[in-house]
Amino acid sequence: MEIYSAIKNRRSIRKYKNDLVAKDTIRKILDAANWAPSGMNEQSWEYIVITGSKLAEIKSVCKEVIDLRMPPETERSEQQKAFAHWYSTLGNAPICIVQMTKAESEAARRKMVLESVSASFQNLLLAAHAEGLGTCWMTGPLAKADKLQAILDVPQDRELTAITPLGFPDEVPAPGKRLDETLQNKVTWIGF
Ligand SMILES: Cc1cc2nc3c(=O)[nH]c(=O)nc-3n(C[C@H](O)[C@H](O)[C@H](O)COP(=O)(O)O)c2cc1C
Fold it and tell me: Which ligand 1 atom is at minimum distance from the Cα of 173?
């Protein structure tokens, strides 16, 4: 897939088909994630690929997160109900991937590491899209990171950094409008 097409046509997918994804395809996507640039070439991203009963446990933590953020179920608008449903089911995705890195206490190192793992996650999203798969970069569930770490047996010297469902898309979302499409305000040119 042509790179500009992948970048522009990837969307966050919040509804998935049930079909499982071949392990070789997941490995290919993770290999792309592993080719990201990283500060001091530390490549400090790590991934957990989850399906089955542990995935159900993760979805139930996501439900807890959304229930904390929203009014009680009986008082929710239709839009809030739909969003809560997405969170508590992860759009029916058959797989989810959790990214983590070494926990860093020093601010400059943490910044470097978080930027590096973000580059890796974007690679993952674009590679999944190139394979016809959907993803949705999520940090919301990390509000319950301690619970997720316990479910996944992740030691305390690791920080969870992002999570995405993975599966074949069951929706085709419209692209969001670009703020400042002409880049007039977002880009300053010097010396041109
Ligand atoms: C760092 C980050 C965190 C995000 N966290 C969430 C999240 O917790 N829940 C969610 O539904 N979407 C989340 N998103 C997805 C954004 O809402 C989405 O990327 C944005 O609306 C643009 O839509 P698009 O990805 O289809 O272009 C996150 C995206 C990023 C980059």
Answer: 26
What is the residue extent of each domain of the chain?
Answer: 3-167
Predicted pLDDT of residue 1: 76
Q: How far is the CA of 139 from the centre of ligand 1 (A)?
A: 8
Ligand 1 atom closest to Cα of residue 83: 11
- Please state which of the four CATH numbers 3.40.109.10, 3.40.190.10, 3.40.50.720, 3.40.50.1370 is assigned to the domain occupying 3-167: 3.40.109.10
Q: Which two tokens stand for residue 162?
A: 């992002």
| Regions of the chain short of the pLDDT cut 50 | none
Q: 3-state DSSP call for residue 83?
A: helix
Q: Whose CA is nearest to atom 18 of ligand 1?
A: 12
